[in-house]
């Protein structure tokens, strides 16, 4: 959607703009997502949110619609949003994306989600047991500490702190 189109939508009466935006979404996805149906009676939220989402989901010229849909499936999987996940799987299916590709997007999201849990949790654990030699960040901090009183880098750091 071009900027001029957005300006025209914003000039319209909300009673005209909302149905037009809903129809545009229906054409793109083959259905209207739940959250949009929920918000349609709140045009002050619905219109800017829909325009923003459109800019993100459909206006990236460097990503094709299949890639955007697979990313959406991965994110919905990682966030464990069942409604979004099912809707984006239906959209992907309508777009002819094969089940195997959808599954790989889900597996990538699961792997990254798992890594995020481990990274956050192990850092929390390490912060409660500092200095036990098992923390990569402790080792990095040791390497960063300089014992040279003439070190120009340390002098700059100390000068900044004062």
Walk me through what this model shows.
The structure is a single chain. The protein is an all-alpha fold and 162 residues long. It has one domain (3-161): AhpD-like, CATH 1.20.1290. 77% of the residues lie in helices and 0% in strands. The longest helix has 30 residues, at 99-128.
Structure characteristics:
9 helices, mainly alpha, single chain, 162 residues, 0% strand
Question: How is the secondary structure organized here?
Answer:
Elements: H1 3-11, H2 14-29, H3 34-39, H4 43-58, H5 65-79, H6 82-94, H7 99-128, H8 136-144, H9 152-161
Summarize the structure.
This protein is mostly helical and 162 residues long. It contains nine helices and no strands.
| Domain module count | 1
Low-confidence region ranges: none
Regarding quaternary structure, what we see is: single chain
User: Averaged pLDDT, please?
Assistant: 86
Radius of gyration (Å): 24 Å
Binned strand content: under 5%
The CATH class: Mainly Alpha
Distance between the termini: 52 Å
């Amino acid at each position: 959607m071009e900027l001029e189109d957005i300006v025209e939508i914003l000039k319209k009466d909300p009673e005209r703009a909302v149905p037009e935006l809903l129809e545009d979404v229906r054409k793109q996805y083959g259905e209207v997502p739940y959250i949009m149906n929920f918000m349609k009676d709140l045009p002050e939220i619905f219109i800017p949110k829909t325009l923003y989402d459109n800019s993100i989901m459909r206006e990236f010229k460097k990503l094709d619609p299949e890639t955007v849909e697979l990313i959406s499936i991965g994110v919905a999987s990682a966030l464990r949003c069942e409604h979004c996940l099912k809707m984006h799987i239906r959209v992907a299916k309508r777009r002819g994306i094969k089940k195997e590709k959808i599954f790989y997007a889900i597996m990538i999201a699961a792997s990254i989600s798992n890594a995020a849990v481990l990274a956050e949790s192990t850092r929390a654990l390490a912060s409660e047991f500092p200095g036990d030699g098992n923390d990569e960040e402790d080792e990095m901090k040791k390497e960063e500490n300089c014992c040279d009183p003439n070190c120009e880098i340390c002098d700059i750091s100390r000068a900044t702190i004062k």
